[in-house]
Design goal:
Number of strands: 8
Largest sheet: 4 strands, antiparallel
Structural class: mainly beta
Helix content: under 10%
Distance between the termini: 19 Å
Strand content: 35-45%
Radius of gyration: 13 Å
Shape: globular
Strand order of the largest sheet: 1-2-3-4
Length: 98
């Protein structure tokens, strides 16, 4: 999981596909981020989330997983912005730059 730069929201990951953005003060769920539509060939892991990163401005989050996928999400609307599906192996780490 991660804390947003303003400290007002957090994102958690649990199970195969549950990523939730929360209001840090009230504990209210703001968005549930659903897994991407992409399913790589010979998938072994489902959509097991490996990690999340919050962009410096807090407007987007990057979620990646073991099955070769990464998705950039709009943290305000909870909508997927784009899916990054060209990896030939599980993604082990990412970096987000300002």
């Amino acid at each position: 999981g991660a804390v947003f730069p303003d400290g007002r929201r957090v994102i958690t990951c649990a199970g195969e596909a549950t990523r939730i953005i929360w209001d840090a003060e009230s504990g209210k769920q703001l968005h549930v981020l659903r897994p991407p539509v992409y399913q790589p060939p010979n998938s072994r892991f489902g959509f097991l989330t490996r990690g999340v990163s919050v962009f410096p401005g807090g407007e987007r989050v990057l979620v990646w997983g073991l099955d070769h996928w990464a998705t950039i999400w709009n943290a305000t609307s909870g909508e997927a912005i784009c899916e990054l599906t060209g990896h030939s192996a599980p993604i082990s780490t990412v970096a987000v730059f300002p």
